[in-house]
């Protein structure tokens, strides 16, 4: 019931009482990331002392791609009313508790003076964290401040109040991809839906790697669904940063249409094309020199080099991307054992990955999907797809043929069980338009039967039109409806 509790609308600042717990997000599975602990934070009406509260916020940027979003204007208006020009906790009203993460709690909130501006507020109690965990918090805040991408969260404000760190980010009302996956028949997405979600995750990872950020925590639980059905990657406290040198390369590619011709409404059509070659410029920004020895992540998604503890780099994200596609297709991960230890042994062993035999997923396009997974789940990172030229190599794989990558944010999300519901206003608009034309037909036919002359108003001009014209329109519409 805690998740549904609504907090009173008071003028008091709010603080949080923190105790350690093993709870995780209600929508998440039992899989938790390694090297983490959870906090539970409860609402407390006691006022934060003004003498002991040190509140600060990040500067409000004007360079963000969503700078015209009304939420930016609402935040600016609230900050301008503050004596120091910053956004504070008392500007926010808690609506309900969304869930408990690995380092803090997340609340749905809105600005007190603008109920239409809703956000997610991640609250972290720094006094309960070790120095290592504090570095994870700092890393997440730093990375969030760098992001400017449709499939990654926007950091609207970074508030330091007393011993709490509060991150104001996007609220995704449609939950996470893992919860949506569990609603599907057999816990599996159709192939077209897998291609859609995988393509958007690939673009998000490409952007992170271009900034020199290795994600290290890819899994369906960390992929949230926006209001429009597109994805948003979340949780960046396990990331690490490395140097990246962008380069421009030229590649010989076959020119012509791919065998997959469209990516709209989850539908892919098959066509044939020419085989002419052309020289295509290719921008590559991949942190190939990234290196870390930290063993962090979710055990079912750990790469072999991470399990061994000998050090790892950017390749751990492309391994996890292969596991991610496998889980969306088959409803489980490829190396899952009876326990965490057996899963890690399966990953570290020399045994090759095997595909489950499920009749429902043996459909057209599965050969390409399996080939991509096999190339991503190569245990030697030096031969793994994506480790050298990053997402560009993966984008060229036949599994993603036909996708117009610059337009991907405008693609229509697939219709799946428990997915984004169609807005009622759109349906009503279509029905009203349909009844308008039916009513107009009845009116025209009634006038024709009475023998009245018909008129069509175009601007300020009145044109006399023969009744035969309306007979043509009416009969033509009857043919179309038939």
Automatic annotation (TrEMBL):
Known EC number: 2.7.11.1
Residues annotated as domain Protein kinase: 92-400
Family matches, as CDD domains: STKc_phototropin_like (cd05574)
One example GO MF annotation: ATP binding
Name assigned to this protein: non-specific serine/threonine protein kinase
Keywords noted in UniProt: ATP-binding, Kinase, Nucleotide-binding, Serine/threonine-protein kinase, Transferase
Keyword DNA-binding: no
Enzyme class: transferase
Pfam families registered for this protein in UniProt: Pkinase
Chain's gene name: LOC111276610
Entry-linked InterPro entries: Kinase-like_dom_sf, Prot_kinase_dom, Ser/Thr_kinase_AS
Superkingdom: Eukaryota
Organism of origin: Durio zibethinus
Catalytic activity line of the entry: L-threonyl-[protein] + ATP = O-phospho-L-threonyl-[protein] + ADP + H(+); L-seryl-[protein] + ATP = O-phospho-L-seryl-[protein] + ADP + H(+)
Protein family (similarity comment): Belongs to the protein kinase superfamily. AGC Ser/Thr protein kinase family.
């Amino acid at each position: 019931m805690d998740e549904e509790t609504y907090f009173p609308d008071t003028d008091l600042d709010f603080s949080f009482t923190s105790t350690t717990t093993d709870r995780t997000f209600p929508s998440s599975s039992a899989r938790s990331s390694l090297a983490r602990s959870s906090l539970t934070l409860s609402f407390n009406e006691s006022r934060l002392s003004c003498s002991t509260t040190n509140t600060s916020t990040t500067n409000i940027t004007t360079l963000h791609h969503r700078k015209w979003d009304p939420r930016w204007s609402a935040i600016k208006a609230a900050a301008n009313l503050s004596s120091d020009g910053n956004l504070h906790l008392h500007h926010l009203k808690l609506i309900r508790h969304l869930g408990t993460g690995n380092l803090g709690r997340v609340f749905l909130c809105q600005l007190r003076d603008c109920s239409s501006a809703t956000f997610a507020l991640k609250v972290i109690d720094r006094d309960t964290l070790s120095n290592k965990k504090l570095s994870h918090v700092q890393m997440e805040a730093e990375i969030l401040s760098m992001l400017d991408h449709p499939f990654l969260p926007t950091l609207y404000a970074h508030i330091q109040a007393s011993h709490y760190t509060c991150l104001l980010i996007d609220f995704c009302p449609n939950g996470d991809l893992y919860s949506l996956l569990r609603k599907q028949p057999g816990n599996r997405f159709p192939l077209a839906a897998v291609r859609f979600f995988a393509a958007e995750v690939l673009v998000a990872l490409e952007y992170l790697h271009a900034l020199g950020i290795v994600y290290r925590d890819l899994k369906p639980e960390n992929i949230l669904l926006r209001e429009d059905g597109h994805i948003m990657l979340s949780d960046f406290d396990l990331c690490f940063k490395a140097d990246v040198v962008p380069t421009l390369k030229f590649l010989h590619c076959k020119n012509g249409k791919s065998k997959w011709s469209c990516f709209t409404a989850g539908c892919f059509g098959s066509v044939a094309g020419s085989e002419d070659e052309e020289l295509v410029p290719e921008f590559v920004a991949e942190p190939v020199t990234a290196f870390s020895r930290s063993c962090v992540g979710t055990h079912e998604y750990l790469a072999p080099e991470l399990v061994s503890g000998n050090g790892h780099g950017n390749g751990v994200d492309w391994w996890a991307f292969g596991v991610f596609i496998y889980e969306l297709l088959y409803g489980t991960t490829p190396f899952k054992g009876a326990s965490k230890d057996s899963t890690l042994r399966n990953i570290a062993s020399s045994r090759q990955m095997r595909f489950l035999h499920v009749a429902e997923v043996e459909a057209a396009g599965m050969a390409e999907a399996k080939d991509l997974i096999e190339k991503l789940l190569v245990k030697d990172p030096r031969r793994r797809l994506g480790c050298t030229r990053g997402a560009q190599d993966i984008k060229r794989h036949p599994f993603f043929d036909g996708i117009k990558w610059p337009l991907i944010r405008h693609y229509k999300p697939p219709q799946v069980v428990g997915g984004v519901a169609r807005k009622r206003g759109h349906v009503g608009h279509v029905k009203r338009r349909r009844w308008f034309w039916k009513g107009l037909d009845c009116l025209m036919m009634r006038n024709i039967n009475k023998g009245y002359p018909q008129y069509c108003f175009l601007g300020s001009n009145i044109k006399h039109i023969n009744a035969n014209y309306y007979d043509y329109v009416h009969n033509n519409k009857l043919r179309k409806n038939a």
